[in-house]
Amino acid sequence: MSRPIAFYYGAGELDRLSRFDLVVLQADFYSRAELDLLRERGVRTLGYLSLTEDVGPAAPWHRPERNPDWGGAFVHVGDPRWVAHVVDQAVRAMDKGFHGLFLDTLNIEYDYPEDLPHLLLLIAAVREEANPGYLLANRGFGLLPELADLVDGVLFESFSARWVDTEHYAPWPDDVLETHAAVAERLLGLGLDLYALDYADDDELADFACRRAREFGMFCFVSDRVLSRI
């Protein structure tokens, strides 16, 4: 029996990935032949796409600030050159054989709220130009309710558990869990596919995350900080 979803940012492992209905992969790590094989096995593949951070070389759309955890440069989302860059990445992923796209780095409502309208337009451009079979948004709660009209599903990353540093994992404190529960209740009313991605290094924490996700209608996948486990 297949499982609903997996996130894997390594390469290969086609047999293990074949156990899932939907898998999120790094677009550059898989060939067309590998994607075709997964499709033949009934697996839908989503290519990773960052919409507000850029890990590439210095570019005119970069802001001076960088993500302190991952090192990518924050961008001016509405810069037409960034829009063209992202749409090109999306089109190339779809041409390569991905079923759809996983839209990451959508949480800019606190740092760059002025870019939220630009981000909605960017998602709409990706939908129109790349024509993905499925769009899965990572969080993006500051874009609701408009986001619900543009995507097919929402992932609640770190819904119940988190990585504290590079080696330690823990459940969220009670007040954060309550806040996340309120957001999850809102998501339930949008008619979208709902998923949770949590981080754990032991069975007890993983079981807690999966049980809690089920309470809110979410399929849960548990991994490590760098998504190297299947």
Automatic annotation (TrEMBL):
Top-level taxonomic group: Bacteria
SUPFAM superfamilies found in the cross-reference section: (Trans)glycosidases
InterPro entries according to UniProt: Aldolase_TIM, GH
Protein name per Swiss-Prot or TrEMBL: Glycoside-hydrolase family GH114 TIM-barrel domain-containing protein
Natural source organism: Nonomuraea corallina
